Amino acid sequence: MELRKSNIERLRDPDTIFDVLVLGGGVNGAVSAAALAGKGAKVALIDRGDFAGLTSSNSSNLAWGGIKYLESLEFFLVNDLCKSRNQLMRNYPSMVREIRFLTTIAKGFRWPPFVLYLSTILYWAIGRFFTRAPTYLNARQLNISEPAINTESARGGFEYSDAYHYDNDARFVFSFVRSSMDYGCVAANYVESVGALRENKIWHIAARDTLSGERFEIRSRVLINACGPYVDNHNRMSGQHTEHRHLFSKGIHLIVDKVSDSDRILAFFASDGRLFFVIPMGNRTCVGTTDTQVDDPAVKVTDEDRQFVLDNINSLLNLEKPLDKSDIIAERCGVRPLAQKGGDGIADWVKLSRKHAIETNKDDCHLSIFGGKTTDCINIGNEVAALVNKMGIELRHRTFKWYGEDGEQIRDEFYRQAEAMDLNSYTVDGSSELLTDRLWRRYGGNALELLEEIRMNPQQAERLMKDAEYLRCEVEYTARHEMITKLDDFLRRRSKITQVVRAADIAEAPGLKEACMIFFGDEAEAKRQQWKSSVGL
Question: Do residue 435 and residue 507 come from a single domain?
Fold first, then answer.
C-alpha cells in the first residue's frame, strides 16, 4: 500500500511532465511501460483496476505459435508468432516452458489425422525446429499413450510442442510492470483516466483514484491507449479516430480436480469446432474454452457456458464419474479483443486472429494498441518504443535489452547461497519442483532478498497458509514490492491461490487473516470481508 501511495503522489505532482503515460496495465500496457522506461523515457502507467486484471489474467496460460492459423493460410503470422514464442522461451526459461500437446481427431472431422500431422511437421519447421519433433498416433496408440482420452470415436491424433506459462498469465504480465518500476516508471493500479485533453503539445489526463474517489491531473507528452477491450471507449472520450476497432469473443475456463496424470495438454475439437484444451495446473486441471461473440467486454460465466465445457469434457475423457457444477473449484472468464480494420462490427470472429495493430496519431502524439497476445509481447514493446521515439521522445538507452530473466551470474549466486542454507534440497508440497526453483522463477534476482530474510529468521521459510504454497517471506516481499491493494490482487493475480483452492476453504484460515495483516495493517479485516463479499461468501 505504501508503494502505491508514494507513486500516486508522484503522479499528481503539478511540476512533473512525463514523456509517456500508458493507460492500461494488461500485457500491451505492461510491455510498453517496461520497454520505454528501460530505454530511458520518463514513463507513468495507470490501470483503472488491478494490473493484468482483465484479458491478461483469463487466457489459457499458453504462449503458442498459432498452429490454428495454418488452416487459414496465415503463414507469415505463424512465422512471427513462432519466432516470438521461441524468444520468450529463450529469455524466460523458468517462466515460459515447452509443453507437449496431445491432440485427438474424431471420426468425420474435416481433415484426416495424418494430414493434420503433416501440418505439425510444417509448424515445427516454421518454428525453426526449436522444440521436440511431432509424432503421429493411431487410435490404439492414443489409448495406450493417454488412457484418460475417450477413443471410441477417435480416428487418430498427434503430439507436438508449444509453450505455456508455468505459474499463470497474470504473474507473467506483472513481471513487466515490476521491471518497468525498477527502470523508473511510476505505476499505480486502481487509477482511471476519466478524460484526456491535449493543449500546447501536452496531454492533460483527468485521473481518478477509484478507491478514494480523489481526482488529480497527470501530464505527459505522449499518450498510449493500451486499455485492452476498452481502447475504443477511451478513444471516443479523448477524440481519437482510428481505422481499427475491437470485436469481442468471450472465453471461459473451469478449474476442476486433476483428471489426468499426464503432464501434457490434451487438445480436442469441441462440439462447436473450436479447439478445446485440458490443461494441467499443478494438482488441478483447467478445461475450456468457449467462444461467444459479445458486444460488451464486461462478461461473466453463465450456466450455458459451464454446461458447454462440462458436456465436452465428459464426452472427451474417460472419467470415473461425469463432472458437474459441484466439481468446479474456480472459473476464468474474459474477452479476447480482436482487431478489425474497418467493417461494421460483423465478422466471423472464430477466424479472426489475435494479431495486434498499433495506430498512431503523430500530430497528437497518441498511440492505440489493438488486439495482441502474450506470445508477441516483446515485439509489441519494441514496436511501441520505436514509434514513441519517432514522436520526438528521446530514448537515451535505445539498445537496452529491457526483457528477460536476470543473468546467469545472479542466478548462480542465488543457487550458491541457497545451497549453503540447504534450501535447494526442499521440494514444493505435492510436486517434484525444488523450492529454490520456484523462488527463482517468481522473483528472479530479488529472491536473494528472501534468502536474507530466511537467514535472519528461519520462520520466514514457513508456509503461511495451509492450502497455499507461499512462504511467510514471500507474502511480506509481495506486500512491499507488488502493490497489493485488494486481497484479490494477491490471491488471484500475483498468485493463483484462488484458482486452485476453493475460496470457501481459505476464507476463515488463520494464515489468510495473517496475510491480510501483512498487506493491509489496520484495514486487514475490512479488506478480507470485502474480498469475501466479492466472491459470494
Answer: yes
**Which stretches does DSSP call E strand in 38-172?**
43-47, 96-106, 135-138, 154-165
Q: Give yes or no: residues 83 and 199 share one domain.
A: no
The grid coordinates listed for 423 are: 534450501
Predicted confidence (pLDDT) at residue 427 exceeds the cutoff of 70: no
- Distance between CA atoms of 258 and 530, rounded to whole angstroms? 30
Give me Rg for the CA atoms of the chain. Answer: 23
In a domain, 401, yes or no: no
- Domains of the chain: total: 3
Confirm whether 96 is domain-assigned.
yes
Per the CB < 8 A criterion, the answer to whether 410 and 443 are in contact is no
Q: What CATH code is carried by the domain that includes residue 136? A: 3.30.9.10
With CA atoms as reference, report the closest residue to 400 among 2, 11, 68, 35. Answer: 35
Instruction: State how far the Cα of 57 lies from the Cα of 253, in Å rounded to an integer.
Output: 11
Co-location of 45 and 174 in the same domain = yes
Long-range own/partner contacts, residues 112-115 (CB < 8 A, 24 or more apart): 112/155, 112/156, 113/138, 113/155, 113/156, 113/157, 113/158, 114/156
The answer to the question of residue 209 being in a domain is: yes
Identify the domain containing residue 113 by its residue range.
79-165+247-341
Residue 478 is inside which H or E element, if any?
Answer: helix 472-481
Residue 261: CB atoms within 10 A of its CB come to 9
Dump the DSSP string for 248-292: EEEEEEEEEE---S-SSEEEEE-TTSSEEEEEEETTEEEEE---E
Contact 518, 476 (CB under 8 A): yes
Output the CA angle 93-94-95, nearest 5 degrees: 95
Whether residues 365 and 314 share a domain: the answer is: no
Q: 281 and 251 share a domain?
A: yes
Are residues 284 and 417 located together in one domain of the fold?
no
Asked whether residue 446 falls in the same domain as residue 508, the answer is yes
* CB neighbour class for 12 (10 Å; exposed up to 12, middle 13-18, buried from 19): middle
Q: Please write the tens of the pLDDT for every residue from 202-219.
A: 999 999 999 999 999 999
Return the percent helix, strand and coil in the chain, to nearest 5.
40, 25, 35
* Neighbouring-strand partners of residue 189: 47
Q: What CATH number should be reported for the domain holding residue 355?
A: 3.50.50.60
Closest by CA to 279, choosing from 99, 434, 152, 146, is 99
Query: In residues, how long is the chain?
Result: 537
C-alpha cell at 513: 487473516
Residue 73, pLDDT score: 87
435 domain-assigned: yes
How far apart (Å, rounded) are the C-alpha atoms in residues 216 and 151? 61
Interval 309-342: pLDDT, tens: 999 999 999 999 999 999 999 999 999 999 988 7
The answer to whether 502 touches 255, Cβ cutoff 8 Å, is no
One domain, residues 357 and 482 = no
What is the DSSP code (8-state) at residue 493?
I
pTM over 0.85: yes
